[in-house]
Design goal:
There is one protein chain. By secondary structure, the chain is α/β, with parallel strands linked by helices. The protein has one domain: Spore Coat Polysaccharide Biosynthesis Protein SpsA, Chain A. 44% of the residues lie in helices and 20% in strands. The chain has an eight-stranded mixed beta sheet with strand order 3-2-1-4-7-6-8-5, sandwiched between helices. The protein is globular and about 40 Å long. It starts with a strand and ends with a helix.
């Protein structure tokens, strides 16, 4: 059984289409909502998702969603994701692999933007994921519950919960899936591609030196 967990906060615009897409493979979609006021919860329920309420904060929401899910396989996605061509086969391929439960799979990142800045950042993300073992949450994560539980699951963190989890899994057990997740480039267009990317790198560096999460949040949301 495959359960997909999606943390939400005012995600009504994109969430219904994502849930509809996931029904072709997922046995269960769990939406962990952090207090939406735009009808996200009602829309998710209408699409057949299991909706739970959680304190806001992506790490805590993901952990709560995983706890509520019934699947022995878990896939974590962001609400603004669009699944790329062939994603179903990529998911089934890992689940059906005799050694699949030892791996954590992540998708290739693609932006809904035609600019050269988007293509360069996609290449950088691919290198970071492969060479450093640091795929981010917007690339999704597919893993067996036994592996998730063994490494302790998501920490109750507002930011960097994705980095903390893949570091516990370890680079050698991370597996790229042969499909893409298309994600919104709205934040990069709004803040500037270089400025937003630089800000993210600073946040990552602070996380690696164990800086307080409140410092990271202040920079990330500035």
């Amino acid at each position: 059984m495959l359960s997909v967990v999606i943390p939400t906060l005012n995600a009504a615009e994109r969430l219904p289409a994502l849930i509809t897409t996931l029904k072709s493979v997922a046995d269960e979609v769990v939406v962990a909502d952090g207090g939406s006021t735009d009808g996200t919860r009602n829309l998710a329920q209408h699409e057949g998702a299991v909706v739970i309420n959680s304190a806001p904060g992506r790490g805590g929401q993901l952990a709560a969603g995983a706890k509520a899910a019934h699947g022995d396989w878990l896939m974590f996605l962001h609400a603004d994701s669009t699944m790329g061509q062939g994603w179903q086969d990529a998911v089934r391929g890992l689940i059906d692999d005799p050694f699949g439960e030892h791996w954590a799979g992540y998708f290739r990142l693609a932006f809904d933007d035609e600019s050269h800045q988007a293509r360069r950042l996609e290449q950088l993300v691919a290198w970071r994921s492969r060479a450093l073992g640091l795929p981010y949450g917007d690339q999704g994560l597919l893993l067996h519950r036994s592996l998730y539980d063994r490494v302790g699951g998501y920490a109750d963190m507002e930011l960097m919960e994705d980095v903390a989890l893949v570091r516990k899994i370890g680079r050698r057990w991370l597996k790229p899936l042969d499909a893409a997740i298309i994600t919104s480039a709205e934040r990069y267009r709004r803040d500037g591609w270089l400025r937003r990317s630089s800000r993210n790198m600073v946040c990552l560096a602070l996380h690696f030196v164990n800086a307080p999460n409140r410092w990271i949040s202040k920079i990330y949301y500035s």
